[in-house]
Design a protein that fits this description.
Blueprint (H helix, E strand, L loop, with lengths): L11 E5 L4 H6 L10 H7 L20 E5 L19 H4 L7 E5 L1 H10 L11 E7 L2 E6 L10 H14 L9
Parallel strand pairs: 1-2, 1-3, 3-5
Antiparallel strand pairs: 4-5
């Protein structure tokens, strides 16, 4: 089982749909060598250097965290709605004063169709109108190597979020 990388006071929480098989096997987020997450968040300015998946806990030093809509790798491209109508990964960030980007528009669209809290079809990339409490929602392209989006376009989407955030403060360390 892969643990969420969360604590109070984060400036952003990356939320994917579920761990891939490589991540489930290794027990860390975004572990597949073809996944561009760690490279993209570094190039977008979230981290000072490119972290390796095994260094995922160091992400907290930057004021960032990671959660998933569904914690089970077997749920490929599907969601299980939990009690209260909000998937577990979203309940983890409910009411927190931070930005939450969904790591994949398809994932967010699936969540929004199944979860009464969102009711949004075809969400555009970037900052969303809706919030969960004080939490601002963003939609970002999936960094998976299966996503054929160019690296430049992927980076631009993540950089837009990075540029919209205040820099990490000493309180996030």
């Amino acid at each position: 089982m892969i643990e969420d990388i969360l604590r109070q006071g984060l400036r952003v929480v990356f939320c994917g749909i579920n761990p891939g098989l490589s991540s489930a096997h290794k027990g860390v987020h975004f572990a597949n060598a073809n996944n561009r997450f760690w490279k993209i968040i570094h190039l977008a300015g979230f981290t000072a250097h490119q972290l390796q998946p095994e260094e995922e806990q160091r992400l907290l030093e930057t004021g960032c965290g990671i959660t998933m809509l569904v914690g089970d790798a077997a749920y490929h491209r599907s969601l299980r709605v939990v009690a209260g109508g909000i998937p577990a990964g979203w309940r983890a960030v409910d009411g927190q004063d931070r930005n939450v980007p969904a790591a994949g528009a398809g994932d967010f669209r699936q969540a929004s169709l199944l979860c009464q809290a969102f009711r949004v079809k075809n969400a555009p990339w970037g900052r969303q109108e809706m919030r969960i409490g004080a939490t601002q929602l963003w939609v970002l392209p999936n960094p998976s190597g299966l996503n054929r989006m160019s690296g430049d376009a992927l980076l631009a989407a993540y950089r837009a979020l990075s540029d919209a955030l205040p820099p990490p403060s000493l309180t996030t360390r």
